[in-house]
Amino acid sequence: MTRRTLTALLTLTLAAHAGALTGPAAADAQARALLARLSLEDKIGQVSMAHMFRFTEGDRSAPLRADAAGVFGRLRPGTLLNGGGDAPPQNTPRGWADFLAALDSLGRANSPHGVPAAFGTDAVHGVNNVPAATLFPHNLGLGAAFNPALTREVAQATARDLRALNTAWTFAPVADVGRDPRWGRYYETFGEAPWLVADQVDAAVTGLQAEGVAATLKHFTGYGLPSLGMDRANAEISARALHEVVLPPFQAGIRAGALSVMANSGSVNGVPVHASRTLLTDVLRGELGFQGLLVSDWNDIDRLVGTYRTHADLMQAAAASVNAGIDVYMVPNTLEAYQAALRDAVQAGLVSAARLDEATLRVLTFKARLGLLDAPLRGSGVLEDHRALARRAAAATLTLLENPAGTLPLRTGRVLVTGPGMDSAAMQLGGWSVNWQGVGKGNVPVVPRVSTLAPALKATAPVGITVSALPDGKRPQLLAAARQADVIVAAVGEAPGAEWMANNPALTLPEAQVTLLRDLLGTGKPVVAVLLAGRPLVLPADVQSRLSGLVMAFLPGTEGGAALADALLGRAGFPGRLPFTWPDTLAQVGLTADRPPEGAGEAPLPLYPLGYGLDYTTSAARDLAVTVTPEGVQLSAALSNTGERTGTVTVVARVTRPASGGLAEAAGRPVAALQAVLKAGETRTVSVTVPRERLSSWVGDAFGPGGWQLPGGVYRFTAGDGRAELTLP
Q1: I need a labelling partner for 3 at 20 to 30 A (CA). Which of 20, 132, 457, 501 fits?
Q2: What are phi and psi of 231, to 5 degrees?
């Protein structure tokens, strides 16, 4: 064997091992051996998370400070964080890899027993802090694709890039269900239907951890049901809603092996989750069986004192939170104050030595699972080119809502493109893109290379179509050009944002964009609106009713413009289907596909139901059959492409359960999706297994005890035009 061959084999072996997680038993043994050697101060350090800027000059994006080694020795942090928009002096892949490698070396050399810190970050749609990275559609768009295999592929690509940057822990995926579109984090969810979201969460966790990056299920729990649609608000949740709506995606992620969970910053039924032992220990670890690492959200133990005022001081808050189940506290504003408070709580007997050991052991086991106790990450500092995957992912999300006169696809003539989103990387990428609040916000001078709509249409329009683009600022010139156009494409939507800054209480477009659409419609020319948005938006009736086309593009990422051009020009179709219920008015917020019937017998009809979407072809689902299996039931349906061109056929399968325990049953609980890419005229039978738990009910009176039951009786299933019944004993 030649030296070159040996080197090649060794390189392949190391590459194959790079993404492998250490087995639970071996990691536990390694962690326990190390735990026995740690002092009280060591353990307090291990359960603390420091911001990476604690080790840089001026606590900002700068080189490591001269006394960084001493800071490590004093704080002994078990984990480190970089937040959204935080970056090393050189915000490049090589700059990240080198900076984190240097930080890791300092930590290993100056931490007790050489225990390294684990780096964590919010990589929620690609490695989104790095301008050079490929950014994928946000989760809500992936939910519209109804394709967990695609979600897994995106997660794997993200994980490989993370490891290239010397990071092996991401605070993703969001496992909250999206029930109130006014909420600023709605776009980070996969949609409203718990079991469909569960399939996506399973795929994301599996994809990340297959490449050796720890996934984090967030935010446990109830974060996605905020009062008034406000971020970090109180959620009022019944026992039934907790089990049937909130928990299924978390259960799916735990079964997929998620190594960490992040706690909800808000409160549930008036109790701050960071102090709720019922939720963080009894439910998370008892009911759901989670055995991994539970990390706080940003500064949320301090908030027990300053925001919720449930605890008199930080020592009491620290004791309450750690005893509730928090293992690691994320970035307190003053790390030293938290460590002193936890030390005082242990010495006062408010936190037992056994509980601190338990939390520390989980931190060490977490690192052992990632292989960090064996050797540092050796990231290449080179990101993969994921543009083809990003384009494919964006194309799968695009959802056509209106096309009454067949204006789309664009076939011939003069096309005018306008609107604030026609050439906007910021609107297309959304929040958590280079900066926490998105491109153009904060300390982000670099705009990533993004394929946007107007340039993509111009560059790829076929012979016979002339594309021009004008910004919407100079209205007289724009309207003059619009009157000469055959079709107008208006790209409108939301400015990027995150968390409470992205709340949209009225569910509206900015008034200036509504005026733009009205002005364009006033020309009498066909107007196709393309929405770049992280939620359904309620358009005024006079605008909605006169549009010649309406496309929901979600927040499609780096290659969104290219994918949109393909769809608008007919080179591709619109495979996306809504992963949520689109309200007709603001008053319909809270209307979901599984909502129980109203006592007055009214049945509110949304503007568009869950699963809605048009395409350039037509489809049908018929001959639904259901059979009992050991796991639950198998649904099979004949999916048909009844149109004249290839397209993706997606239908949501629903079940109406028999009455039981006095519960009012919804018109149909979404339990699975059936999907196939079919040629014109093709029919294919597609099957999916629906586990028994998706048919079960949490039965009990409004305030009484409850429990899971699989009631006997007739179960009615629907999928498209298919209908089937099954009687269970």
Answers
A1: 20
A2: -65, 140
Residue 720 CA from chain centroid, whole number: 27
Q: Which two tokens stand for residue 133?
A: 């990275």
β-strand pairing of 683-691 with 632-641: antiparallel
Which residue from 269, 271, 272, 278 is spatially nearest to 227, judged by alpha carbons? 269
For residues 142 and 149, give the distance between their C-alpha atoms in angstroms, rounded to a whole number.
10
Instruction: Report the predicted TM-score, pTM, of the whole model to 2 decimal places.
Output: 0.96
C-alpha 377/C-alpha 45 separation (Å) is 21
**Digit-coded pLDDT (tens) for 618-663:** 999 999 999 999 999 999 999 999 999 999 999 999 999 887 655 5
Name the packing angle between helices 511-521 and 475-484 (round to 10°).
40
Q: End-to-end alpha-carbon separation of the chain, Å?
A: 66
Sign of CA dihedral 23, 25, 29, 31: positive
Three-class secondary structure of residue 463 per DSSP: coil
Buried residues in 111-133 as b, exposed as e (16+ CB within 10 A):
bbeebbbbbbbbbbbbbbbbbbb
Distance CA 630, CA 462 (A): 54
Place of tokens 């290993």: 108
The continuous run of DSSP H or E covering 700 comes out as: strand 697-700
Average pLDDT on 74-89 reads 93
Residue 577 sits at φ, ψ, to 5 deg, of -135, 145
Write down the pLDDT at residue 10.
35
Rounded Cα gap, residues 564 and 550, in angstroms: 12
Given the residues 98, 176, 297, 472, select the one marked as catalytic.
297
pLDDT of residue 663: 59
Site of tokens 């946000």: 138
**122 noted as active-site residue:** no
Whole-angstrom distance, CA of residue 528 vs CA of residue 410: 10
**Separation between Cα atoms, residue 138 and residue 394, nearest integer Å:** 9
